[in-house]
Amino acid sequence: MKKCIFGFAFAALCAGWGCNSTPEQTNAGQTGQTATSDSTAWALLPFVKVDSVNPVLMPGTGVFMDPIRKKQVAWEEKDVFNPAIVVREGKIYMLYRAQDKVGRPDGTSRIGLAESEDGFHFTRKGAPVLYPAVDSFQQYEWEGGCEDPRIVEDDKGIYYMTYTSFDGKIARLLVATSNDLLHWTKKGPVFAKAYSGKYLDKWSKSGAIVSTYDKDGKIVATKIKGRYWMYWGDQNIWAATSEDLVNWTPVEKASGEADPIALRGQALNMPDLKIAVPTRAHKFDCDLVESGPPAMLTDKGILLIYNSRNIPAIGDTSLAEGTYAASQVLLDKEDPTKIVHRMEGYFMKPDKPYEITGQVNEVCFLEGLALFKGKWFLYYGTADSKIAVAVK
Question: Which domain, by its residues, includes 160?
């Protein structure tokens, strides 16, 4: 299959796509920067929220037999959010995080599956497809669960899901594989073998693998100079490399290399890591930055949509405490830890009632991106409670 790496020529085509055939839409929290401005000509913009159908997924009534509790559990009755997206056989498949009301600390999370023929109306499976079980990974996944998937495929069509496990104390980035999106084989923590297990018990999550976004909608993991690359983390964004998409090695600093910012939070526990995308003082992304959908390899660089959290005292005073807004950054293909361009502002923020109020208030968390039927579909969690979509 011939792959197409998107660049300025295709970006220009994208910018001309209309949305007249979609339901009613409104601006997605724009900051005045557009895809035609000099400062963001490299970015994938603009997106508009599809108000007439949002939220596209709500908590459900599905029940399944939990293999650990050994009883029926309403596995998605509390919240659904933070989805991965796959285009397969002319449909959009959404793999989403769902929470019950009985697990600790905030309900056990499992990964559900829903499908759509138009990208707006979804039919879900009755049971989750990835969840904590009595297996060798229970120690990492119980009882917080399996969270926040991101999915790519390799050149043989095998799907790789990075997801976060949570044992109630530590978040760890894990990976699973599948041929059909229904049946998944867990491979375990992605950093288990790196540096003799140095990062196995460190806080890790949100693995966005650098990929080619094909015209047919496939998101195919693509090597750079013989290695796969991944952006991960939720304090700053760090990088890791792999030869097989299962075992990953975090990128550490060179000897004597200084950090671009003062370390804080989880970064203090991992001082040897090289920061690829740091937080920024006095901005919307002052407190935390976190990978969004799989990173997009283009002819101009690596495009990463990322999420951020704001604290007005050290960040953007116009945004509420804890606001999760989204932005974009372009990194160097020759050195994927080097920033080439970065938006000064955010391109999406919470401004709808279901984005402002929920399990966690003031959240738009972008995680699923797909090229489908001539448009870009961007799916996101709203207030850690529901799922919505914006379209370019």
Answer: 8-55+155-377
